[in-house]
Design brief:
This protein is mostly helical. The chain has six helices and no strands. Helix 3 crosses helix 6.
C-alpha cells in the first residue's frame, strides 16, 4: 500500500528571517544518507520524533527474521538457536505468528542451507532483531 502524503506548510505573521530560521531548523541534513536535503526539505523527525515502536520494517527481510526466530526457538531444531521453547509454547507461538501473516505461513524449521542463504548478506542477529521487533507481538515470548 503506497504512503503518499502531501503537506502544505504556510507561514503567517512571520518575517523572512524567522521563516528561513525555521526552514533551516527542520531541513534534512546533508549527511550523505539523504538524496535531497537543504531548505525546502522537511525532516519530520525534527518536528516530532517518530516513536521507536513505529520504526518498523516489513517485507522479505522481516519474514526471514521471523522465520529465523521461529527456527531458533523450535525445540525440534538442534542446529540453530540456544534458547528453545517447550513444544506446547512453541506450537502456540507458531499459531499466533501464522494468524498474523496475510498469505501462506511462516517456516519454522529452516534448513542449514536456507539459513546460510538468507544470512549471506545480513547477519542472523540483525535479521532476528527485525523479526522480533516490538510490533511483532506474536513473536514475543511471555
Amino acid at each position: 500500500m503506497p504512503n503518499h502524503v502531501i503537506n502544505h506548510v504556510s507561514f503567517t505573521d512571520c518575517t523572512p528571517a524567522r521563516r528561513r530560521e525555521i526552514l533551516e531548523a527542520i531541513q534534512y541534513d546533508d549527511n550523505g544518507e539523504n538524496e535531497y536535503h537543504g531548505i525546502g526539505t522537511i525532516d519530520f523527525n525534527k518536528i516530532i520524533p517518530m516513536p521507536e515502536s513505529l520504526d518498523i520494517e516489513s517485507g522479505t527481510r522481516t519474514d526471514h527474521g521471523i522465520e529465523l526466530c521461529l527456527t531458533a526457538a523450535n525445540p525440534l531444531v538442534d542446529y540453530f538457536g540456544d534458547k528453545k521453547m517447550s513444544p506446547d509454547d512453541f506450537t502456540a507461538l507458531l499459531a499466533r505468528a501464522n494468524r498474523g501473516k496475510m498469505f501462506g505461513s511462516y517456516r519454522s524449521s529452516l534448513s542449514k542451507e536456507e539459513i546460510e542463504r538468507i544470512t549471506e548478506h545480513d547477519s542472523a542477529e540483525s535479521l532476528m532483531k527485525v523479526g522480533s521487533q516490538p510490533d511483532q507481538v506474536y513473536l514475543r515470548r511471555q
